[in-house]
Amino acid sequence: MCADTDADADTDDSNHVVTALLRHRGDVLLLRRGDAVGTYRGQWGGVSGFAEGQPDEQVRAEIREETGLEPDEDISIVRSGRPVEFEDPDLGRDWVVHSYLFDADSREIELSEEHDEYEWVSPTAMLDLESGLDAVDALEAEAEAEIGETVPELWTAYERVAPTVRSIAADDEHGAAYLSIRALEVLRDRAGVIVAERADFGAAPADEWDELAELARRLLEARPSMAVLRNRVNRTMAEATDSVADGDPAAGAPAVLESALSNLERALGADADAAATAGERIDGAVATLSRSGTVLEALRGGDPSRVFVAESRPAREGIDVAEEFAADDAVDCPVAVHTDAAAAHVLSSEDVDRVVVGADTVLPDGSVVNKTGTRALVLAATREGVPVTVVAATDKISTREEVNLESGDRSAVYDGPASLDVVNPTFDVTPADCVDELVTERGALESADVSDVVEELRELEGWREMF
């Protein structure tokens, strides 16, 4: 929350402000307010200003003015939150903060005169963690002490738009890797709050662990078909268990916070490395489908001469990928979109050199669970002799043989008056023998390598039985 420099703004209007948190790779952008602003000088906040008109429009204008980022080009809206209302007795004002969360494509911004510094930090840097970390390694406190005092109710504004178990369960637009990062953010944020609360309520490692373990279990249940979410949550909790049984004050919330922060970095690095490895193989015409951030980065890092993208009904997220790829200044090749039903025709009639797809899950036998349409695309590629590359971090390998395939809304297929059954599977399974290579951050894996990864990941599941 913050106000702009217009001291003459109408009182009723000036009490309504917009605050946007821009997110990139799990961190958010905070700006330190300079001498040019009228309130909260020297304090850190999001992109903000008076809501002089419609908040949804004003917040985009503020982002453009204060960061130089262009809405709908450099950033994308995630969600808006319920307004935060509070009184600042020192200023004698009642504030109404309209909060927003946006994903940013990069960290490069241009500061306006209203701010004199900016930082990309974990949202938990907004919390007073040091007061709750007296018994914890000082390095952890230093990692969070990157900013000074924040504007009032900034954390509350963030919580209104932060990822939750519910938002992860309901998200039908993003891939598994993206949602696994959101899951780790949920654990990080809650652990940070509990650490900050130690200053008032004291340390209770066992109780803190119980609460966070229950939250982790709810995250595991939110998207049961996504092995990457399951593996990354399991790793975070498994790495935080070492000192819980001994009642170490550093255990409980601090241990989960530290593990979540480190595993966020690990996960983001794994996805980027898998994309880079796959990009080295991309040369010539490529066909793909659906929305995979890892595949998109692989295409950007490769040298495609043309890209064919199936529209990926019913949400048609393939169209979004095609538009984003075509609008990238670093891309210099034509992009074509086509219906899902035309995939086999495209592969038979066009000179396609490689099919590149992502994976929501890779089964222990090497079969690939991905957005519906992947199986048809890959079978057509096999028929035409086109090699198939699946790009995914090793965390997407499942420890389970069974498949839990989610179904989409029936109205996305048929909402007419006839009494019809509707089949709308969200995912399908592509046989392992139709996949030429599984490219990960560890390189291309053979079947024996997949088995080794499965065993590694199964060991991480033991945290659920320890306490």
UniProtKB/TrEMBL annotation:
UniProt xrefs under PROSITE patterns? NUDIX
A Pfam family found in this protein is: NUDIX
A GO molecular-function descriptor = S-methyl-5-thioribose-1-phosphate isomerase activity
Q: What are its GO biological-process terms?
A: L-methionine salvage from methylthioadenosine
* Organism field: Haloterrigena alkaliphila
The protein in question is named NUDIX domain-containing protein
Source domain of life is Archaea
Q: In which family does this protein belong, per the annotation?
A: Belongs to the eIF-2B alpha/beta/delta subunits family.
- Report domain Nudix hydrolase positions: 13-143
